[in-house]
Design brief:
This is Resolvase/invertase-type recombinase catalytic domain-containing protein. By secondary structure, the protein is α+β, with helices and mostly antiparallel strands. The protein has helices at residues 14-30, 47-56, and strands spanning 2-9, 34-42. The two termini are 17 Å apart.
Length: 57
């Protein structure tokens, strides 16, 4: 199975961003998923979410 990791922080916080990614990657690996992409957003702008949605199409 394949997974796409999307994370979001309300405000820029690089340490929290890395922690969220690490947690998601661990869960994907535990379920034997191949991570095929990643995206991240800070604040209200959702360009990373748009990237995820585009990848689904």
């Amino acid at each position: 199975m394949r997974s796409f990791i999307y994370t979001r922080n309300a405000a820029p916080n690089i340490a929290q961003r890395h922690q969220h990614y690490k947690q998601c990657k661990t869960i994907a690996e535990e379920h034997q998923h191949e991570v095929i992409g990643t995206a991240h957003d800070d604040g209200c702008e959702r360009s990373g979410l748009a990237t995820l949605i585009e990848g689904l199409g």
